[in-house]
Amino acid sequence: MSVAKPDLSVEIAGIKMKNPVMTASGTFGFGEAYEDFFALAGLGAVVVKGVTPEPRKGNTMPRLVETTAGLLNSIGLENPGVETVIKKYLPRLADAGVPVIVNIAGNTVEDYCSVAYRLSSCSVVKGLEVNISCPNVKAGGIAFGSRPESAAEVVNAVRNHTPLPVIVKLSPNVTDIAEMAAAVEAAGADAISLINTLLGMAIDIRTRRPKLGNIMGGLSGPAVKPVAVRMVWQVARRVKIPVIGMGGILTAEDALEFILAGATAVAIGTGQFVNPRCCMDIVEGIKKYCETNEIAKITALCGAAWKEENNAGC
Amino acid sequence: MKYHLPEARVIGQQLTGQGIYLLNILAPEIADLAQPGQFVNIRSTRQLDPLLRRPLSICGVDRNEGLIRLWYQVVGKGTQLMCELLPGETLDMIGPLGRGFKADLTGKKAGLIGGGMGIAPLLFLGGELAKSNSVMAFFGGRNIEQLPKQGFMPKIPCQFATEDGTAGYKGLVTDLFAKWLEQESPDMLYACGPKGMLVQVVRLARQYGIPLQVSLEAVMACGVGACLGCTCAKSSKDEEGWLKACQDGPVFWEQEVDL
Ligand SMILES: Cc1cc2nc3c(=O)[nH]c(=O)nc-3n(C[C@H](O)[C@H](O)[C@H](O)COP(=O)(O)OP(=O)(O)OC[C@H]3O[C@@H](n4cnc5c(N)ncnc54)[C@H](O)[C@@H]3O)c2cc1C
Ligand SMILES: Cc1cc2nc3c(=O)[nH]c(=O)nc-3n(C[C@H](O)[C@H](O)[C@H](O)COP(=O)(O)O)c2cc1C
Ligand code: FES
What is the ipTM of this complex? Predict the structure, then answer.
């Protein structure tokens, strides 16, 4: 026996998604890059590139280095600034048939608040993802994401500047991820996403210099997956708000691991670079898994790896 | 339109010089649309290392047979795996990608300057331009191994240079090009190759006031404008925005970019 039509829909802080598969910020442009490969409407949600109040040039080249089963990047939040994003990039997403979530960043608490406030009046935007975890910018970003007090301060301030759902994106570059999660939950976060990239570097033995122009960068891709799964597990057990899991997801099997660890939804970043249909293949794969394993609702799998009552049913 | 061909079939592969291969792939959708200067992004393994795709210029197409041709040098893991592919085996390819050369000329005189593997896109371009223009090509390499061979060279007049003198003029390709410019006045110039060569070509093009298009290389992850990893410096500082080699390029007007 198999379930004919499993229900893949999930809800994150009031954002209704037809399936749990989202794009990871910074790896999907503003939704246009992969339109020849699949329709955005097939996704659970689209998360666009990190947006700051002013345009940002980003870091010097080279900004990418491939490592074993991973990618180091030091893009440095290059983006055209919130006004241009609103004028030029968001309107074309209005009819895409998919909830749009905008990732926001800044140097100061005021930066975050002004971008959040500005985006709140755009009907296209269904949620904000607050990036307090970018390892590639000197001020801000990770500075806020590395201490529970400062993370809570940003989240609290953003919370007071927007009626939109606030998703807080955590950095894995901390000692106690569950403590960070608890702090942002208490400060008013509606959901948590993790992980952002792991701080790393690579050295060219020929030139004897760092390979990235910015010296250090953020590691993503399959290499980080076990770390990400562990962190999702720890966070999901600690907080009551939904968790969006990401880090090295390439296949439906990877995505299911995150869901079993406690993620309500998953996001795909580097996987899209490897396979331009990655997100869609994962939606298909999750559906098949549910059919074969008689899972009527995907939400039944969320955290099943530690929720004993659910485990018994599998 | 970009296509994803997860199982494009290898039709044939041959060694054209030490560590340099010519690869024919069945990819009718891409062959149909491809313009000179565009590229494909290739994965030749399903393993996770190497993880990312590798960009290669389209060096020629056979639209009747639905083939595209790539000419590449083995420099690391990705290209090593590629050169081991046998006819009938498949690779995973996206294309055609990027903005190619602007080549809608008729009855004009064009100069092509290529160095090393930068010659690859110019072979495609040369063949197309020669249909209705007079074309002169200058191709340089370290040695004879690095030069294109009869059989996949378009029928265009060509001067070769090698650094070690094993073929053609002994010295830099830009020397040959500079001498030619003293006598000829081309309408359009096209260049692809190492940065040092491009800088020289830009200098000469400016000196003679001839429009020049350059094809640039950058490390790429997505190849489709999603990751912002391949950003190139814009020459004009006051303009808003950035240039992505994979989407706005790889071909640029010389004055658009800061080499
Ligand atoms: C738009 C574009 C078109 C290209 N067209 C061609 C072509 O037609 N023929 C061809 O032979 N090559 C071409 N290249 C370069 C080619 O992409 C690289 O040689 C290839 O990605 C190397 O992969 P690898 O896994 O073998 O080497 P890796 O293991 O990735 O690297 C090995 C060595 O090669 C160097 N390298 C890696 N990537 C590049 C790069 N993009 N440019 C220069 N050096 C690099 C690295 O620094 C390293 O030292 C092109 C690049 C771009 C961006
Ligand atoms: C090229 C690149 C750019 C990124 N840009 C952003 C960004 O602007 N904001 C953000 O919160 N995360 C950014 N990230 C992190 C991803 O959203 C994601 O958290 C991380 O890459 C892990 O997922 P993955 O292994 O599936 O890529 C970026 C990642 C990459 C590879
Ligand atoms: S390679 Fe990703 S934007 Fe150009």
Answer: 0.93
